[in-house]
């Protein structure tokens, strides 16, 4: 055994780098593939969780950001910019620090989780809250990157998807072959595109014998791909995927169609239920958007779209600590006791 070296070094021969590329890394990737005992029981499938919240900044974005910032550094960039619902900005800010670059981030005002805002700020990003939604922020960031000397590190940057495809490699490396089905949340649709790229690459090179059916899930109030048209005012409690006009829309449809999968919607209520289930019965604390993958799996099994007995991987994309408000909402408040064993035992129902 040797120490994990980050996704660029681990998969160097499958990524667009040379011996001279200055790799910017926080040793991202190598995340656990955790058997989901309870979800397996409930669905009759063999379910695994790819726990991406254990990346350095707490989301899958780090896989893409190590590549995007590495290539920006190789090109001599001094500054990067992104639009974000929170995780991309947290990741960009951290990797920019590693590279000695400045980082500008545009976020929808009042619609990003507190933990993500804190990350961008503590890493010294220049943060603007935009009076608009994510789609407006992305349009602004694109314009600024065209007119000013600042590199765009959103997933429209092809290096981002190259980095993110390594999650598929890790899954196949861990399971010995591709699963039957892969479920993940869909927002700007970069990640489903990247996973599909990774699975296809391994199959084409004979590392795996097959590819999985790709199942993507949007929140029902922010489900443009499901509806077949942009959503002008996307609404969902899962702020990470509150996106009405995904940049990788067409490539997500391609992933769906080539793989024989489906992109569907789940309600906020289903997302919240899956979020609580993962925390209370699997011991895995994810953020709301991440739970859309598991909510979607349960819905698809119920509807007969995924066969019982299938081997399924659900990507849980971000760490629950980023947005603790939803964990506290609905939880009973903690009881205060004096420094007294009997009082504590009574309060705990032990006495
Ligand atoms: N899950 C989480 C936790 C996310 O932060 C995102 C996207 C997604 C899922 C959806 O992934 O966009 O590739 O389809 N967050 C972006 C951001 C938009 O700005 O952090 P996608």
Tell me the major beta sheet.
Answer: 6 strands, mixed
Sequence stretches where pLDDT stays below 50 over 5 or more residues: none
**Average pLDDT metric:** 97
| Tally of helical segments | 15
Provide the succession of SSEs. Answer: HEHEHEHEHEHEHHEHEHHEHHEHH
Strand fraction equals 5-15%
How large, in whole angstroms, is the Cα Rg?
Answer: 20 Å
The counted number of beta strands is 10
**Ligands, deduplicated:** ligand F0G
Strand order of the largest sheet: 1-2-10-7-8-9
Please state the overall shape, judged from the principal axes of the Cα atoms.
Answer: globular
Please identify the oligomeric state: single chain
Helix content: 40-55%
The first-to-last residue Cα distance is 48 Å
Please identify the structural class as seen in this structure: alpha/beta
Domain Tryptophan synthase beta chain-like PALP: 24-318
Enzyme class: lyase
Catalytic activity: O-phospho-L-homoserine + H2O = L-threonine + phosphate
Cofactor: pyridoxal 5'-phosphate
List the helices and strands and how they pair.
Layout (H helix, E strand, L loop, with lengths): L6 H4 L22 E3 L1 H7 L2 E6 L9 H14 L4 E5 L3 H13 L2 E7 L5 H9 L3 E5 L3 H14 L3 E2 L5 H7 L1 H10 L5 E5 L4 H15 L8 E7 L4 H4 L21 H11 L2 E5 L1 H15 L5 H15 L8 E6 L8 H4 L12 H7 L4
Parallel strand pairs: 2-10, 3-4, 3-6, 4-5, 7-8, 7-10, 8-9
Antiparallel strand pairs: 1-2
Helix pairs in contact: 3-4, 3-7, 4-5, 7-9, 8-9, 9-11, 12-13
Describe this structure in words.
Pathway: Amino-acid biosynthesis; L-threonine biosynthesis; L-threonine from L-aspartate: step 5/5. Its EC number is 4.2.3.1. It is built from 15 helices and 10 strands. The chain has 351 residues and is α/β, with parallel strands linked by helices. The strands form 2 sheets. Strands 1-2-10-7-8-9 form a 6-stranded mixed sheet, sandwiched between helices. A 4-stranded parallel sheet has the order 5-4-3-6, with helices on both faces. The termini are far apart. The model has no long low-confidence stretch (mean pLDDT 97). Ligand F0G binds at residues 59, 61, 84-88, 155, 185-191, 240-241, 287, 289-290, 317-318. Ligand F0G is lined by residues 59, 61, 84-88, 155, 185-191, 240-241, 287, 289-290, 317-318.
């Amino acid at each position: 055994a040797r120490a994990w070296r980050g996704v660029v070094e681990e998969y160097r021969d499958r990524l667009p780098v040379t011996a001279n590329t200055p790799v910017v890394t926080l040793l991202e990737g190598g995340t656990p593939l955790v058997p989901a005992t309870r979800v397996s029981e409930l669905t009759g499938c063999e379910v695994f969780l790819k726990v991406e919240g254990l990346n350095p900044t707490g989301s899958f974005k780090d896989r893409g950001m190590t590549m995007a910032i590495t290539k920006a550094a190789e090109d001599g960039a001094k500054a990067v910019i992104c639009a974000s619902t929170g995780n991309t900005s947290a990741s960009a800010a951290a990797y920019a620090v590693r590279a000695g670059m400045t980082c500008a981030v545009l976020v929808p005002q009042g619609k990003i989780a507190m933990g993500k805002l804190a990350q961008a700020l503590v890493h010294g990003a220049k943060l603007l809250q935009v009076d608009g939604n994510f789609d407006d922020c992305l349009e602004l960031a694109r314009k600024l990157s065209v007119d000013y000397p600042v590199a765009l590190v959103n997933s429209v940057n092809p290096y981002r998807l190259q980095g993110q495809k390594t999650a598929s490699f890790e899954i196949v490396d861990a399971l010995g072959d591709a699963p039957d089905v892969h479920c993940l949340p869909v927002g700007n649709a970069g990640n489903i595109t990247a996973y599909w790229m990774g699975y296809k690459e391994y199959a084409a090179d004979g590392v795996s014998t097959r590819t999985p059916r790709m199942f993507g899930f949007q929140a029902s109030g922010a489900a443009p791909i499901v509806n077949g048209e942009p959503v002008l005012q996307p609404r969902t409690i899962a702020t990470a995927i509150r996106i009405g006009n995904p940049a990788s829309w067409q490539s997500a449809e391609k992933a769906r169609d080539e793989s024989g999968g489906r992109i569907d919607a789940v309600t906020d209520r289903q997302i919240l239920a899956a979020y609580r289930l993962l925390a209370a019965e699997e011991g895995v604390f994810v953020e709301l958007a991440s739970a859309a993958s598991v909510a979607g799996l349960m819905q698809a099994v119920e509807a007969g779209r995924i066969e019982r007995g299938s081997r399924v991987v659900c990507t849980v994309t971000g760490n629950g600590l980023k947005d603790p408000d939803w964990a506290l909402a609905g939880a009973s408040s903690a009881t205060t006791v004096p420094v007294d064993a009997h009082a504590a035992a009574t309060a705990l129902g032990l006495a």
